[in-house]
Amino acid sequence: MPAPKGNFIDLQLVSQALDHIQLGIHMVDIDGRTILYNQQMRVMESMEEIDLLDKRLQDIFKFYPDDNSTLLQVLSSKKPVLNVKQTYFNVHGREITTLNNTYPVWNNGELAGAIEIARDVSSNEQIRIRSGSGNPDLSSFNHWTGSSPLIKEMIFEGKKASRSDSMILLIGEAGSGKERLAQSIHVERGLSPHAFHSIDCRDLTAGLLKELLSEFKTKSAERDAATLFFDHIESLEMSLQKQLTSLLTQWKLDIRSADKPSIYPILTLSTDPIDAIQSELLDKDLYYLMSEVLIFVPSLRERKDDLRELADYFVEDFNLRFQMEIEGVSSEVIKLFTAYDWPGNVRELQHVMEASLFAMGQDRVVGFTHLPHYFRLKFDDPLNTKTSLDSSSFMIREGKPMQTLDAFLREAESYYIQKSLQYHHYNVTKTASALGMSRQNLQYRLKKNNLIRQSKPGSPF
Fold first, then answer.
1. ∠ CA(69), CA(314), CA(297), 5° rounding?
2. CATH code assigned at 349
């Protein structure tokens, strides 16, 4: 890698040494122009050295409008920025996600530039294709975290159900882990990991339903037995529910003459079935048909005894994925978690924990100040003995410095979008419509605020 013109030292030997390091290294001068850029960083960002050397970062990479490069942040603050996840785009439009440690570089007491050490975590951020294709990395019953009586009972019922050929109905709130339970039953049945197919009924049309079931029926002899997981049955139009009732009735007749089913249906409801029938959201005949085996998935507020184990799981998982050494969660935070009702269930806890862990810096124990701002607003600081102001003045708290307007607006936006998502059961299309924006605009804001992420295999739901 040739040394850029205008520098007073020859960087040739340093550049060659950095090319052997398996972490991304990017160094800029005080003006934000690249002077060092190693081989691993070129691979991570899909860029060539000629594209960057002696050029300004803003001319090469696109960062979110309100989120500067960590390198530029260090040039501005003259302080290290540690353990920060950053998502941005290269000049070709490719999305990149890295976990960065960034430090100022000094020369004779003067700031000379900044250097960034980055790990590529883009693969951890990619959302899996859920519908119409198998997922080889499924959760089993061994992946469940928690020892509360309700979880033990659910696991017992799930294992018992896996020994039958009946269709199964799972009832539980959004985010409680119904798909994880369906995966566990699939694995317990000994079916191929590639034969689990998840269908979100909120996006299902008559044409897609007919095409999907026709494909499995005509090719059943050519493929392994499969699980068809129908999520959010109550979201289907009534005409489609009646059509599904007819198809499942035929399925029950077919398996009487077969040694083993070629398809195992598992369906879910996110609401009480009787209430759904009375509200005309659920066809009564469909409910009676699919409730041969019924399993309730407990909400997180019903299993708060599991909060410590779940929080420890997320810390352990974070340390493993990002080579960190976080020690755990403070008892004060666990008390706050226990006092909260968790309307988004384990999925919401996962979001809160991940946001907290990315805010750790050099700290090793998750405390109140690491929690997301929108979540902290629900409580008084347990370490602050002063009385907070009236809730109508929630943006200002005694004993705490005021945020900048930009910082407050970012966190208020994140909070409002998250509550809208919960209200619309995480349906992006409906949420975008309610917020008066395009689906693409909402997707951008979801990525920017890190609000929706596909649960990774082995999630502790």
1. 125
2. 1.10.8.60
